[in-house]
Structures are given as C-alpha cells and as structure tokens.
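dude i think i finally got it to work??
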Amino acid sequence: MKADIKLNPDLVALAPELADRLASDGLPTDTREIFRGRNVVATTADRALCIKSFRKPGAFKSVMYGYLRKPKALRAFENAMRLTAMGVATPEPFGAVVCSENGMLGCSYYICRYMPGWNELRSVQNRSDFPAIARELAEFTLGLHRKGVFMKDFSMGNVLFRQTDDGGYEFTLVDINRMAFDVHDRGTLMLNFRGILETAEATATFAREYAIAAGEPDVDAFVVEAAEIFRRHQVKVERKKKIKKFLKRKK
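look at this
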C-alpha cells in the first residue's frame, strides 16, 4: 500500500504523526465519530482536528481516481488551501492522506480544524432573525461570486454559520471537494440558488438581498429568475425520489 501525504506547510509540525497513523492504520481508535453516512467524519481525542474519511470506492472508480481524477480528499485539501489564500472562510486545512495500491485508490482522508458551535442552514427560515441572516448570507455569497468561486455543493449542510459577538453573522464552507475557480459566468453562478435554502419564500428573500447588494438594475426580475432556478431543482429532486422509490418496489 502506497500513501501520498500532503500537509499544509504553515502547519506541518501539527499533524504529521496523525497523517502517518491514518496512512498505516486508518482512523485511530481514540477518535470520536460525529457523522456516519457515505463517508465518516470524526474528531481527534483533543477535539482540535476533524478528519473526513472518504469511503473506499468500487473497482471502476478506484481506477478512475487512481489514474484520471484527483481523489476527493486531495481536492478538498487543495481547494481549502486556495480558499484560505483568497480570504474565503473554510476550516483551517491541515492535510490529506491518500492510500493506493497498484494504481487503484484505497482509503483517503482530509484533515482540517474542528469547528464546534457552527450551525447548518437547515430550517433557518424559521428563525426570527432570518431576515438578517439572509442579508449577510447574500453578501457572503456575492463575495464568493465576485472572487470567481463556484461551490458546486452549495447547500444547507455545507454552508455553516454562527452569530458573532457584535450581533452579526459569519459563514464558512465545508465539504469543499467539488469547487470551481475563476468562474464569472452569470448562469453558472446563479445555480447557487438551487438548494441553499429549503423553501421558495426563503430563497426569494435571499435572492432579493443578493440582488440589492449586487446592484442589480431589476431586483424583482432577479428574484423571479432565482425562484425559477429553485423550482426546477425541486422538480429534479422530487423526480429522483420517485425513481428511487419505484426501484425499491421492484426489488
């Protein structure tokens, strides 16, 4: 088994032992699991670092990631380093560990700073302070777009927020292995209105604040366009759910 280890040069002294342990033994037994799904997310015993363990892909994808595409852990690390250099908030990146054998991807891990106390955007429209959150989320999103940053998984679970001491809000990006940079195409950037919030009403509020901050000449038209992008996405989501339900009944 071959291990490729990439570390943040500014923090290289903080995580090499952990990286070596991940390469040789996988997730240490003293880590604390905080999420399990397709992938596993855990924190170190001192809760200083967060480790995302990517599921080992099947044979076809193992070859694809081994030869044709960068593994997700490596992309997450490189994207985090680039975002940090650009002044875009994301948990401080420490490194990536990619294990392979005979050119086929095995286990892989992304290591970053653990950041407790942050909230997902799920159900945020039910909060009494939602108008203020929507306004600052719009400014955050506009800041990304002006820097040419397009997060493909710009969703309720991947944009975290918390209230600051002065009563404002700050945001940070997680699950960042699917990113594009130097994107200034309006149609592409508008796709970020697909699923960042749960309802059409919340999306309209967010879009209006974005349009105002961006200086759009026709705010109402912009809101209608964003609402249509949200609606089309919801149709696709519901279609996928129906297909999955149909396939389950056929089993």
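Residues 219-250 form the longest helix (32 residues).
im so relieved honestly
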